[in-house]
Amino acid sequence: MTGGARHARAEPFPRAASAALANVQLRRNVRAATASIRVKRAAVVAELPDWEELRAAGAAIKDDALARLDELLLELEGSVRRAGGVVHWARDAAEANGIVTALVLAEGAREVVKVKSLTTDEIRLNDALEAAGVRPIETDFAELIVQLAGERPSHLLVPAIHKNRREIRDLFRERLGLPALSDDPAELAEAARLHLREAFLRSRVAISGANFACADTGTVCVVESEGNGRMCTTLPEVLITVMGIEKTIPRFRDLEVFLQLLPRSSTGERMNPYTSLWSGVRDGDGPRAFHLVLLDAGRTRALADPAGRPALRCIRCSACVNVCPVYRQTGGHAYHSPYAGPIGAILAPQLDGESEAAGSLPFASSLCGACYDVCPVKIDIPSILVHERARVVARGRAGLEGLSMRRLGRIFASRASYERAQRLARTLQRPVARGGWIGRFPPGPLAAWGRARDLPSVPAQTFREWWESRARS
Ligand code: SF4
């Protein structure tokens, strides 16, 4: 399969996660990779004495941008136009896919090279291109692996984090027709490079994402590690960038702050190897046409919610993903969104709050707070998780758990019903209570809940009963 990823039907997180938990190899791969990035990140962050000031500056710039996004987007549009680019506005995924597909077909292209675009994963652009007879070729090494495997990305930064070297070698042997390939990382990278070089030379249209876009100059910025982004943004004749509107920052000089925060938080490097910056087009240098597609797709709705809005500060560094104890066990596929981990648990429901799968994500967290500690733009993810949980409950989507909690609330609200419940529980627990503990749960939803928990049994006498009997005697 050479095309876009196959997307399984989205199921609620607990169901999807239980399948991932059964995959021991996947959990081992994810744990090993996230542990190594965590150690590197901690070391390079500790080198900067002004890290906290940088975080505060990053958060303030993003907050300022979000507060006047309407005005900055118009400024960005004007700057890009003056620099020779064309700006398109897309209300949702369908509109964005339609715009990009029409641009590609208008060039007569049947193949495009793509780089660095979580946003195009979000809108499932590859599926739309394939439906229009255009072959998308992912050029980021990890994205290419995921595409060749017919899977979805499972990490913001390392989309193939769930695969180890042996699995990648087997995939390349089969899909690239290289039976003698070893699992040496340099050999694997070389195989991908040779495969992609042909595509770079052939393709006339490239599609990229954007890390930032500066409203004052119209400059778009992409940071990456392999240089394939640079090839995409310079070699083809036409460059199409698809960008969520929240990537807009006010000034070119704001990049100074983010280019310190991003590489250290994401790959644990002092500086990423390649930073590509371009403003419109220039005769004889780079693409002859540049299109910027500005995507809303739920972002203005998120912007309108003061409690959820800080999620739009996210610079997609993935530091929160790497420290998340839930993500470490399940990997990214269980989130059914390209935004996995803690940021996915708050962003996906905001962008796509209607589906049952998205509604289950705010509960995919232990609320330990590790994500908040590492976030370079100080997003208080735990508070937003709680806010999103409250919205799910308010929509009546909490299911059996919500019903049980409402029932428990009523029992706890009245002493008489609480004592009645205690007496009933004492009778009902008899077949399963042993030595002060509920050993096993009866079949049904409680059985799954009880498999991972120890629950003390209701004592034979409550304190109040003991006190009254003592007074009587
Ligand atoms: S929420 Fe913060 S830590 Fe997580 S990806 Fe976004 S910027 Fe990075």
Supply database-style keywords.
alpha/beta; four-stranded mixed β-sheet; Rossmann fold; 13 strands; 12% strand; 51% helix; 473 residues; Fumarate Reductase Iron-sulfur Protein, Chain B, domain 2; 3 domains; binds iron/sulfur cluster; six-stranded parallel β-sheet
Could you give a quick summary of the protein structure above?
With 473 residues, this protein is an alpha/beta fold.
Write the layout of secondary structure elements.
Elements: H1 13-21, H2 24-46, H3 51-67, H4 69-82, E1 86-90, H5 93-106, E2 111-115, H6 118-123, H7 125-131, E3 135-138, H8 141-149, H9 165-175, H10 185-202, E4 205-208, E5 212-214, E6 219-224, H11 228-234, E7 238-244, E8 248-249, H12 255-266, E9 274-279, E10 289-295, H13 299-303, H14 319-323, H15 325-330, H16 341-351, H17 356-360, H18 370-374, H19 381-394, H20 399-412, H21 415-428, E11 433-434, E12 437-438, H22 445-451, E13 455-456, H23 463-472
Parallel strand pairs: 1-10, 2-3, 2-4, 4-7, 5-8, 7-10
Antiparallel strand pairs: 5-6, 6-9, 11-12, 12-13
The chain binds iron/sulfur cluster.
Give the DSSP E fraction (strand runs of 2 or more residues). 5-15%
Rg from alpha-carbon coordinates: 26 Å
- CATH topology of the largest domain, what is it called? Rossmann fold
- What is the second-level CATH architecture of the largest domain? 3-Layer(aba) Sandwich
- How helical, in percent, are the residues? 40-55%
* End-to-end CA span: 81 Å
Please state how the strands of the largest beta sheet are arranged side by side.
1-10-7-4-2-3
